[in-house]
Amino acid sequence: MDTYGGGIEREYRKRRKTPRSFALGMGVLGLTSVFHMARQHSTPSWVPVSFAVLYVVLFVKMGLYLRRGRTLVGARGITARRAVTERGRAWHEIYDIRAEPIPKAPASARKWLTYLYDTEGRRFVLPHLDDWQLDDVPAEVAALREAAALHRGAGWERRPQVEALIRRRAGHRKAWERASIGGMVALFCGFLLWVAFLFTTDHPPTFLLFLWLPLGTFAVLAALLNWRWESQVPEAQQQP
């Protein structure tokens, strides 16, 4: 973190090395998957190639994020700079800044993330305001909130209508997350079926198992879970 004159001007960027176990684990997992796919002669060539391209894109994006990503705090507001994009809010649009623990985080992963919430209940992560780069994330966020109070022109009091929007968006976000997990489970099950088909047929339904099964599972779960959450939202909260 860089501060300027002890005021509101701050820059949070990568200061410490990313845990090697995290990067090594991701690399080994990707290389192993591509190797096993390439060894199977019945696998269409586009499957390992597509997987390898996707993995390279993810690694390049991660590298750009670590090099370019930062959180910029100034008199006008906060800007979150990511790998290739930027997202910011002026102080009058910022509702809250919260350090939140990550439930059941692995030992090598981050335990704390910091989110900016705007007055519409939307949130986004503030890069490098986490426990990989800071020793005490809640304390740093508390100091940032205190320094920003004068620039906001208002206190950090809770507003019931904005809290309702935050809860509503959190419910839909959880629905999309669970649908994504369901799609990944379907992809894993499709992989197991594909392996079994290798011993029983010369032409396993690769396209169906690796694409349509996970996509279909994701679409059905997303629609069902979002509908279920929306049906539980009180009528007073359905119109922001």
Provide a concise account of the structure shown:
By secondary structure, the protein is α+β, with helices and mostly antiparallel strands. The protein has helices spanning 20-39, 46-68, 137-152, 160-198, 206-232, and strands spanning 2-3, 10-13, 70-73, 77-81, 86-90, 94-101, 112-118, 123-125. A hairpin with a 6-residue loop joins strand 1 (2-3) and strand 2 (10-13).
Description:
The chain has 240 residues and is α+β, with helices and mostly antiparallel strands. It is built from 5 helices and 8 strands, in the order E-E-H-H-E-E-E-E-E-E-H-H-H. The strands form 2 sheets. The protein has a 5-stranded antiparallel β-sheet with strand order 1-2-3-4-5. Strand 4 and strand 5 form a beta hairpin. The two termini are 36 Å apart.
Indicate the topology.
Elements: E1 2-3, E2 10-13, H1 20-39, H2 46-68, E3 70-73, E4 77-81, E5 86-90, E6 94-101, E7 112-118, E8 123-125, H3 137-152, H4 160-198, H5 206-232
Antiparallel strand pairs: 1-2, 2-3, 3-4, 4-5, 6-7, 7-8
Helix pairs in contact: 1-2, 4-5
